[in-house]
Structure formats: structure tokens, C-alpha cells
Design goal:
Order of helices and strands: HHHEEHHHHEEEHHEEEEHHEH
Number of strands: 10
Number of helices: 12
CATH topology of the largest domain: Glycosyltransferase
Shape: elongated
Radius of gyration: 30 Å
Strand order of the largest sheet: 1-2
CATH class of the largest domain: Mainly Alpha
Distance between the termini: 75 Å
Number of domains: 3
């Protein structure tokens, strides 16, 4: 409409002579947009952008629509035709304009009163939500309940929402503990990125190795929340690794995403993701193996059928500091 109508000289003359024209950027002022989008829906039964609102001198809409073309098209009146009709009605039938404005005003008032009531009801729910979250939270290992442990991204999102609303580090810390435990655990693929469906144990160590697209998409959302607040490098690394996993392993040649990656390979669950002590010992040099053995907790007994699931118990920075200290000692 900007090129077709607002920059058209004749249309601009009509607007300048008969209207006070106000252009609102809906992205800068979503509050204003929400009010007048509600008025469009009341007046026309639909909505959308661009939004064309005609108001009386008190700022109350009496007519509204979305896109109007430069010329009449497929039963949609041209913008100039709409302007001409609005001018005519406003000058000759002000009573009708006021009646329409009154109906819209009452409708908007009722609509936003109901929103306020819903907000009050939601605020009354917060104490119950807080209690339920705290009652089920694992303050030692993160997550909710005992085992099996699912990411429960909706609850994690609530933690960050509560932290923001209540300005409470307590809820942020609960979210960070959970994400950190998941990222360090076997439920997160330490080599390729991406999160498995759930953990069979409380420690996030032994996963059900299936990787779901929707789980990883939802977890990415939580990781973004976390990183925006904390700027934590571990969170950023896990975020990048998971995006890489989705792009490289879950995307088809047609640029579509597969819904899941099976837990089984070679007829056995987790075979692709687990390693024997001897297998890793043969792959790496003695010095390198000593490092990864300690960092990824590799043992001869393993974690699952004599195979090791890669997980970490301390950050790489702390681990390397301890290694350097032991060497000096």
C-alpha cells in the first residue's frame, strides 16, 4: 500500500485534506497494534496486515480493513474509493459514525477487561506453579522426578519465565543446573551433539538413545533462553553442536527434517554411541587415551553391557587445570 497509495500524489492530497494520517510500526509498538487489530476483527470478522483503521476524533475506530488496492480488484474496493465513502459518511451521517464507534469501543473494553481478568487469574496460579515445580525438582542432579528423566522442556521454560517475572536467580539456577547436567551427561551426544529422548537413570548418564526432532527443537529454544541470560560458554557450545547435528544428520537431501533417529544400530540399542575400553585404547595414542579416559570416564566395566557411554563430570577447564597440577606434582 505504501507504493500504490501512500506515495501516490492524488491519494496523498485526499489524505492530507481530509484526514490526520498516522502510520504505526507494529514491530515497534505491538501494544498499539494489538488494540487496533482487535478492532479490525470486530468490524470485519478477519485480521491481517497492513491494517487500515478509520477513527473518530476521539481515536475510536468506526471502520477498518486490511489491504486496499490502488484500483478496484476482485470485489475489493480501491483505497481511494474507501476514502471517498468514509469522507461522505463522516460529513453527512455523523450519527452512524458515532454509533459504530460506540459499538467498537464497548467491544474493545469488554475484550481487554477479559484479558485483565485472565491475567489476574494467571497471577493467582503462580504460587501453585511454583510449589509444584519445587516439589518435583531434583536439586542435586537437575530435572524433575527420579527416573526415567525426560527433558520436560515446558517445565524448563516455566523456570526461566518465573526467573524473569520474579527477578529470581533461584529459578534461573534450577534451569542452569538441569541444562548443565543434561549437557554433561550421556543423554547429550558428546561427539556429534543432539539430545536423546530421555535418561533411564537419575544422573542423565544412560539414555534411551533415540533422538527426536521435536525434543531437540524444544531444547534449542531453552538453550537460547539460557544463553541470552547467562552468556554461558558451555550452553553456547551445546547449542552450536545441536544445530550442527540437526543440519548434518537430521536433514534430508530435499531440505526436510526427519522426525527421529533410531536408537538401534547393528541390531542393538546404543551400539553406535557406546565404546569398549579396548576399542578406544587402540584408536588413540597412549597419552591421548589417558586424557580422554579420565575426561569421559572410560572404564573396562563400562556403563552398559561392558560398553562406555561418553559423559563428563567436570568442565574441560577444571579438568585441564587438575591435569596440569598433577603433572607438576
Amino acid at each position: 500500500m505504501e507504493k500504490e497509495s501512500f506515495e501516490d500524489i492524488e491519494t496523498a492530497k485526499i489524505l492530507n485534506q481530509n484526514f490526520i494520517s498516522i502510520k504505526v510500526d507494529r514491530e515497534e509498538r505491538p501494544d498499539i497494534d494489538s488494540i487496533y487489530m482487535a478492532s479490525i476483527q470486530m468490524i470485519s470478522g478477519g485480521g491481517g496486515w497492513p491494517a487500515s483503521i478509520f477513527m473518530n476524533s476521539e481515536g475510536v475506530p468506526f471502520y477498518a480493513g486490511t489491504y486496499f488496492p490502488k484500483f478496484d480488484r476482485h470485489n475489493i474496493p480501491a483505497f481511494r474509493s474507501v476514502l471517498a465513502k468514509i469522507i461522505e459518511i463522516y460529513q453527512t451521517n455523523r450519527k452512524s459514525v458515532n454509533e459504530h464507534s460506540s459499538v467498537v469501543y464497548d467491544g474493545l473494553k469488554s475484550f481487554f477487561d477479559n484479558i485483565s481478568k485472565n491475567e489476574i487469574a494467571l497471577n493467582n496460579l503462580y504460587p501453585k506453579i511454583q510449589k509444584q515445580i519445587k516439589d518435583t525438582f531434583d536439586y542435586e542432579k537437575g530435572g524433575f522426578g527420579n527416573f526415567p528423566k525426560f527433558p520436560e522442556t515446558s517445565k524448563l521454560e516455566i523456570l526461566f519465565m518465573l526467573g524473569k517475572k520474579l527477578r529470581s536467580n533461584e529459578y534461573y539456577d534450577m534451569g542452569q543446573l538441569t541444562l548443565g547436567s543434561m549437557i554433561n551427561g550421556g543423554v547429550f551426544d558428546q561427539l556429534s551433539g543432539g539430545f536423546s529422548r530421555y535418561s533411564t537413570d537419575r544422573d542423565w548418564k544412560v539414555p534411551h538413545f533415540e533422538k527426536m526432532l521435536y525434543d531437540n527443537a524444544l531444547i534449542l529454544n531453552i538453550l537460547c533462553f539460557s544463553f541470552m541470560i547467562t552468556k554461558n560458554k558451555q550452553i553456547r557450545k551445546a547449542l552450536d553442536q545441536t544445530v550442527d547435528f540437526l543440519e548434518k544428520e537430521m536433514k534430508s537431501e530435499e531440505n526436510l527434517f526427519y522426525s527421529t533417529q533410531d536408537a538401534d544400530s547393528e541390531g542393538k540399542e546404543g551400539e553406535y554411541y557406546t565404546w569398549s575400553f579396548e576399542e578406544l585404547e587402540n584408536i588413540f595414542s597412549k597419552d591421548i587415551f589417558e586424557i580422554i579416559k579420565d575426561y569421559w570416564n572410560i572404564t573396562k566395566d563400562g556403563d552398559l553391557d561392558k560398553k562406555n557411554i561418553l559423559y563428563v563430570t567436570k568442565s574441560l577447564r577444571i579438568f585441564l587445570k587438575q591435569k596440569i597440577f598433577l603433572k607438576k606434582s
